[in-house]
Write a structure and sequence with these properties.
Blueprint: H1 2-16, H2 22-42, H3 49-62, E1 69-71, H4 73-80, E2 87-88, E3 92-97, E4 100-106, H5 111-115, E5 122-126, E6 129-130, H6 136-143, E7 145-146, E8 150-156, E9 164-169, E10 178-183, E11 189-194, H7 201-215, E12 220-224, H8 233-241, E13 248-254, E14 261-264, E15 276-280, H9 287-297, E16 302-305, E17 313-319, E18 325-334, E19 350-351, H10 367-377
Parallel strand pairs: 11-12, 12-15, 15-16, 16-19
Antiparallel strand pairs: 1-18, 2-7, 3-4, 4-5, 5-6, 5-8, 8-9, 10-11, 13-14, 13-18, 17-18
Helix pairs in contact: 1-2, 1-3, 7-8, 8-9
Length: 378
């Protein structure tokens, strides 16, 4: 037990880069030991000290940021297992805030989006289980289940007094990352919706652009990244590069030299300088923010909508000796202007908030898209 206590505090010191004096350090170790002894002796229920230590380790990681977390051997193994279609999901990207699961983004055409879950919702109960005090990965585990089975979520939403309850049926989540159509009165605007940045997004995206350029008289593009939770960094770089002639796209900065890098555009604009409007909202995160932020900084596009989420960091999965693992933030993204995305997000050039409760992306009630179309016609 004493070795575990010492390990806990060494980890705490390392990640917080604290400079305790030796006497202060041993005082903290003694204090932690005293707390454990009192729990073991006086707490109303019997407790598993190994579970307490797991919670302590996870507490250290979660105190760093919403994306770092500890995985027990059981949970780590489960997260690495190929489910082969046996388990279904809800279609949401989530993070942690103040000990509660926060929805970063519901993905289009998934059970969560269809049920009405919104970016910024706080999931406070999963089934009958309270989320407060659970890790992010424990919450993910609770939400997983066999395809076709229901799950009840209770959420808190900004400016809504009462909790909202949703019954959602789990499904296999297969996201086609790119969809498109011609919009505007003259059908001369290319609308491309990018739902995520997965392995083949750049190829799908480029094929769509070339198809528009070859078969239609396009005067401009609306690129819709609302509720796009992000994905692969290289995909964000590749797709951003389609519209830039040169210059920096994004940089990453971390403690290790290998995590400090800059990425630049190569010569060649796939649409020959045609105007672009990029749509973002609070559900636009990570790679979506890199894309929108880079085009904004280079004044290559007008960014319209609402402030994005602010998920500007890179996580690495690190196996541990006990068979568990940890997810640790190892670097942060920086836009060409040098600004960090993390916890700040991308501010739109033109603020247009979602409309009323009937608001639906890419529909007649989509006032943000309608505003973009009007801009092209003004």
């Amino acid at each position: 037990m004493k070795n575990k206590i010492i390990f806990y505090f060494l980890v705490f010191i390392f990640f917080h880069n604290l400079s305790f004096a030796k006497d202060s350090l041993y005082e903290k170790i003694d204090l932690f030991g005293e707390v454990l002894e009192n729990i073991q002796k006086d707490y109303v229920d019997d407790v598993d000290q190994a579970e307490i230590m797991d919670s302590a380790i996870n507490g250290v990681l979660q105190s760093l940021d919403p994306y770092s977390a500890y995985m027990s051997p059981e949970l780590f193994k489960e997260m690495q297992t190929d489910t082969k279609g046996e388990f279904g999901g809800l279609g949401i990207e989530i993070g942690m805030e103040a000990g509660v699961v926060k929805v970063i983004s519901p993905i289009d055409d998934t059970p969560a989006a269809k049920a009405g879950i919104k970016a910024g919702d706080y999931i406070v109960k999963i089934g009958k289980e309270q989320v407060q005090g659970k890790s992010l990965l424990e919450a993910v585990k609770l939400m997983r289940g066999p395809v076709g089975t229901p799950i009840d979520l209770t959420v808190r939403r900004k400016n809504v007094k009462r909790p909202l309850e949703f019954k959602i049926i789990r499904k296999i989540i297969e996201v086609k990352s790119v969809s498109s159509k011609l919009i505007g009165k003259e059908k001369d605007l290319g609308y491309i919706r990018l739902k995520s940045f997965n392995e083949n997004s750049d190829k799908q995206f480029l094929k769509t652009v070339k198809n528009f350029e070859e078969k239609s008289k396009i005067k401009g593009y609306v690129l819709d990244l609302r509720n796009n939770p992000g994905g692969l960094l290289n995909q964000a770089i590749n797709i951003t590069d389609f519209f830039l002639e040169d210059g920096e796209i994004v940089s990453t900065k971390g403690k290790k030299i290998s995590e400090t890098r800059k990425f630049f555009a190569r010569k060649g604009d796939e649409i020959n300088g045609k105007p672009i409007i990029v749509l973002i909202n609070y559900g636009s995160a990570s790679a979506a923010e890199i894309f929108a932020g880079a085009l904004k900084d280079h004044k290559r596009a007008i960014v319209l909508g609402e402030n994005s989420y602010g998920k500007g960091s890179v996580q690495s999965i690190i196996p541990l000796k006990n068979g568990g693992g940890m997810r640790l933030t190892i670097s942060k993204y920086y836009l060409p202007s040098g600004k960090s995305i993390s916890e700040v997000g991308v501010t739109p050039d033109i603020l247009v908030e979602e409309g009323n409760e009937n608001f639906r992306i890419n529909s007649e009630t989509d006032n943000q898209l309608n505003y973009a179309i009007k801009l092209f016609n003004s």
